[in-house]
Design goal:
alpha/beta; Rossmann fold; five-stranded parallel beta sheet; two-stranded antiparallel ribbon; 7 strands; 35% helix; binds zinc ion
Amino acid sequence: MQSYPSLFKRFVDLLIPLRCSKCGSIIENKEGLCASCWPLISFITKPYCFCCGLPFDFEIEEGALCGSCSQEKPFYKTARAVFVYTAESKDLILKFKHTDSLHSAPLFASWMVRSVIDLQNPLCLPVPLHWTRLFMRTYNQSALLAQRIATLKEWVYSPSLLIRKRRTPSQGSLSKTERIKNVGHAFKIPEAKKSQLSGKTVLLVDDVFTTGATLNACAKVLLKAGAHEVHALTLGRVVKDH
Ligand SMILES: [Zn+2]
Ligand SMILES: [Zn+2]
């Protein structure tokens, strides 16, 4: 016999049908996308660079690095993403970021936990927004994801360990070098919180990996403050030529 909560949930499901997160059409499955939208999203699968998660077009041994990571290793140990950021997947993220598409957070978080590497009780941190931007936007989409991921994996959610001390111009139109410079000194760990980081593994959560400059700047600060290692997890990932 079904319990009351599950019967109640079924009743609610009948009243509020599930919708595709991309086109809004009513769907029967719980995967979040309709059959037409599903093939439009390029989900990232192996092989990819062990460090930055850049997908490779050819088979290569496990643990191999891309040219950029072999040349200069980022501060984060691994970065993983769910799908390639393309014209098709962009609207999923933009809707989530700028409009009231907050109901997508549980779905996106469930996709993200499937992409993350195996970690032992990391602290789950969102890439922070500057308070002025948070004030205008009212929520930090990365924090919503980090919180959900922490709940699903039973990890510790630590939203206030890392703060953005400087408001940086939007990274949108900047080159890779400009992005690195732009976020260079943007983040810090409050002095009183440093002891909480000591020897800990950290999972940094953001919506999009563009060049990795923001995640790298955060990882650098976290390691300097005593973190043992830093990993990154994003929903989308920009892949050149895609
Ligand atoms: Zn759809
Ligand atoms: Zn790489």
